[in-house]
Amino acid sequence: MVRTTGDAQPVMPKLRRAASNTLDLRPHTIQPETNFLHGQMLRERLLATLSFFFAMVALVLAAVGLYGVLNYSVTWQRREIGIRIALGARPVDVIRRTTSGLLTMVAMGLLAGLAGGIACGRLTESLLFEIKATDPGTVAAPLLTLLGAALAAILPPAIRATRIDPAQTLRSE
User: Fold this and answer.
1) Confidence (pTM)
2) What is the DSSP string of 126-155?
């Protein structure tokens, strides 16, 4: 390896001649260090990209599952929600009532994942470069992403529950 200042292109022919004259070697490839490092890191980048892709697929599947569960719950409790609205329940109360169980489960899952992540901290630190397992940004980013996905999945059915017409619901039963 040879270190140069500035552009390495003008030095390459001189380097070839010097290597072949003094070392009785014929350099096959002379390339900048950035190209060498890019080739060495290609596998790690590919694995990181694949991991990111599968993590996003898992996040979307989890959000769709939460949406489906709450949507089914709102449909199943349509009459009860209609009666509550007819008796004067505010939209905030309806949203709180329909989402409280799922938000509790999401919070428990986040806490379990946080506990598991901290418990496996040494393994995590050995896999990541210059990142501490208890770094606030490293811990907060996945938690906030999962919480945001859960809220995005939970809000549409909850808002739909507030728009239930009590008269129509009571007539249909």
Assistant:
1) 0.68
2) HHSSS--TT-HHHHHHHHHHHHHHHHHHHH
